[in-house]
């Protein structure tokens, strides 16, 4: 459904360290800086972009918003979460683990990035 997601950052170098670790933990490549100075990640047919706000205002995290990343296994979720915490992220919500939901069994982990954006890694079991 989604082609790309964009979040704002006040410190692109700090964001690069954080997001490079998340994508590396799941087999992705380091982010590339595009011609507009944005940090771009491409993986599994989607793009994730980090940028300083175009209007020049300070970047702030969206209240109530979460960006979810699809994972291929519970181990990949764990590696993603561990990499994020190690590189400037903050673990939020419940600890990473399996949950029973109306969608079936899933394995989740939540982080806030260094700018406060809420992220989720999710693996859905094929029950």
TrEMBL record:
Residue ranges of every copy of the VOC domain listed in the record: 1-124
Pfam family, one: Glyoxalase
Claim: Chaperone is one of the keywords in the record: no
CDD domains on file: VOC_like
Keyword Cell inner membrane: no
Keywords assigned by UniProt, alphabetized: Plasmid
Classification via PROSITE patterns: VOC
UniProt-listed PANTHER family: BLL2941 PROTEIN, GLYOXALASE FAMILY PROTEIN (AFU_ORTHOLOGUE AFUA_5G14830)
Protein name: VOC domain-containing protein
Species, as recorded: Methylobacterium bullatum
Higher taxonomy: Bacteria, Pseudomonadati, Pseudomonadota, Alphaproteobacteria, Hyphomicrobiales
